[in-house]
């Protein structure tokens, strides 16, 4: 079977992570993604390490399989060219600060009358109607409330990877797919406004409900969960594991592994009891885990059907047979012959074979061929290049 988005064309003005992650997911499902970059600067992430063969591993990870055209969208001639190009695309997606695309004459209001089927996605830190202030992942984690819930009592901590960017990219991709299906019935495009702060705030689980019901702001408790117990990390005699007990049946299974009397202890019979008395329960679990090797302990927990696992590091994940079997360890071959290991697509569709993993584009690598595909002549392309409107 063909990939579900084959034939969909996306004009991609996004940079760094949130937008490029959204278009990466869509590209893996078959969409043709044409990345628009400034001829001089390119995507900021081209300068982010690690570097292999002179190429950014960061850029390659989220831009593999895409095409790049280099057009100076700050110049009127470049703006006019991009408006012409828009006629050949189903989707335009951008993550400039609010108002910037309007200054280029490439905002939705400027395009919608002429391109009625266009789906236009804007990603920003705070939304198009709010602040035009810049926003990176760490700002979104802070402003959304995530960092107020993550870390130690005395120290708010952001997540390791840029999770706010990733959540925003996922949100944008889902919104785009919904509007795409709507266009099949109405024939009309639409405008989608996705904010990083909104996207992360919507994922804070029960924090808002807890405040609404109890007037309580959840404290930072490290790895302790505010609503479920035990749901935590524990040290073994030779490593670390996590244990997640999401219902009373699982608790009974765990308690019987630790101590037969623990299963009937009234302080821990229900999840509500365990949350209230976790300061008593955790030391019991801690002593039990520290006395055993990780491998033996996990075998015992898995045999009892208890959700648990090791805290794995990247050197373990990079050679994990399950990730390998699921195509999650993808190898890019770079022009100098070196290989780069990157995550594969997490979306597995039955009977659809994903294409070979292709490297990310050089800056402006596809400018000439994309313009030729739209019917532009070689003479006009050469003139644009000579005027530094494009780079080929």
Compute the separation of the termini in Å: 34 Å
CATH architectural name of the largest domain: 3-Layer(aba) Sandwich
Q: What's the number of structural domains?
A: 2
> In which order are the strands of the major sheet placed?
10-7-6-1-2-5-16
Mean of residue pLDDT values: 95
| Largest sheet descriptor | 7 strands, mixed
Q: Roughly what fraction of the amino acids lie in strands?
A: 15-25%
Radius of gyration over all CA atoms, rounded: 25 Å
Q: What is the approximate shape?
A: elongated
Low-confidence stretches: none
Number of strands: 16
Oligomer: single chain
What is the CATH homologous superfamily assignment of the largest domain? Answer: Crotonobetainyl-coa:carnitine coa-transferase, domain 1
Give the proportion of residues in helices. Answer: 25-40%
* CATH classification class of the largest domain: Alpha Beta
The structure class reads alpha/beta
Total count of helical runs of at least 4 residues: 18
Question: What is the CATH T-level topology of the largest domain?
Answer: Rossmann fold
Descriptive account of the structure:
The protein contains 18 helices and 16 strands. The two termini are 34 Å apart. A hairpin with a 2-residue loop joins β8 (151-152) and β9 (155-156). The protein is elongated. The chain has 2 domains: 9-202 and 321-391, Rossmann fold, CATH 3.40.50; 231-310, formyl-coa transferase, domain 3, CATH 3.30.1540.10. With 392 residues, it is α/β, with parallel strands linked by helices. α1 crosses α8 (163-186). The strands form 5 sheets. A 7-stranded mixed beta sheet has the order 10-7-6-1-2-5-16, sandwiched between helices.
């Amino acid at each position: 079977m063909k990939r579900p988005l084959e034939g969909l064309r996306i004009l991609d003005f996004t940079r760094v992570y949130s937008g490029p992650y959204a278009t990466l997911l869509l590209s893996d499902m078959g969409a043709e993604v044409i990345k628009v970059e400034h001829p001089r600067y390119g995507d900021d992430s081209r300068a982010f390490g690690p570097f292999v063969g002179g190429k950014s591993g960061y850029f390659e990870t989220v831009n593999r399989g895409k095409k790049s055209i280099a057009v100076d969208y700050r110049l009127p001639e470049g703006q006019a060219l991009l408006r012409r190009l828009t006629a050949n695309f189903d989707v335009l997606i951008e993550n400039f600060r609010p108002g910037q695309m309007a200054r280029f004459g490439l905002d939705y209001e400027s395009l919608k009358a002429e391109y009625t089927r266009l789906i236009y996605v804007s990603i920003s830190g705070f939304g198009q109607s709010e602040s035009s202030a810049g926003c990176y992942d760490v700002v979104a984690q802070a402003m959304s409330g995530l960092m107020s819930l993550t870390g130690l009592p005395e120290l708010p901590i952001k997540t390791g990877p840029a999770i706010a960017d990733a959540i925003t990219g996922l949100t944008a991709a889902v919104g785009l797919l919904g509007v795409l299906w709507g266009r099949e019935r109405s024939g009309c495009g639409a405008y989608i406004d996705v904010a990083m702060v909104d996207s992360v705030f919507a994922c804070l689980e029960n924090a808002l409900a807890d405040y609404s019901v109890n007037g309580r702001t959840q404290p930072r408790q490290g790895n302790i969960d505010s609503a479920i117990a035990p749901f935590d990390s524990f040290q073994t005699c030779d490593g670390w594991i996590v244990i997640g007990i999401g219902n009373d049946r699982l608790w009974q299974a765990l308690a019987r592994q630790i101590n037969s009397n623990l299963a009937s202890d009234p302080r821990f019979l229900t999840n509500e009891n365990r949350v209230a008395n976790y300061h008593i329960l955790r030391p019991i679990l801690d002593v039990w885990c520290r006395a055993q090797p990780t491998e033996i302990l996990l075998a015992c927990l898995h045999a009892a059907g208890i959700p648990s696992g090791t805290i794995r590091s990247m050197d373990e994940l990079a050679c994990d047979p399950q990730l390998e079997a699921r195509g999650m360890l993808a190898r890019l071959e770079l022009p100098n012959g070196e290989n780069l290991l990157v995550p594969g697509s997490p979306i597995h569709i039955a009977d659809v074979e994903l294409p070979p993993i292709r490297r990310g584009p050089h800056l402006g690598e596809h400018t000439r061929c994309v313009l030729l595909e739209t019917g532009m002549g070689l003479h006009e392309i050469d003139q644009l290049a000579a005027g530094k409107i494009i780079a080929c």
